[in-house]
Predict the 3D structure of the following.
Amino acid sequence: MTTTSKREQKAALIARFIDVTLVEDGNRYVVGSGDSRSGLRGKQIAVIGLRHDPGYEIVLQLDNGKTDTFRPGNLHLERFSK
């Protein structure tokens, strides 16, 4: 089996069980306390969740260039000072 067909099989399997909603022009968030990533800031780019589970995670493109997922309760909308 080639690497490409393995990737296609994995992608098809993932698509059966995981919902991904891409977010354009998403909100900016700050990671809350209680997380090793506390204080990091980033822009929401997607929401992911298992199809048979009510929970979900927010995907942030962090200001440091990394992409990671977070529980919604651990994120706070970024407030801009004027």
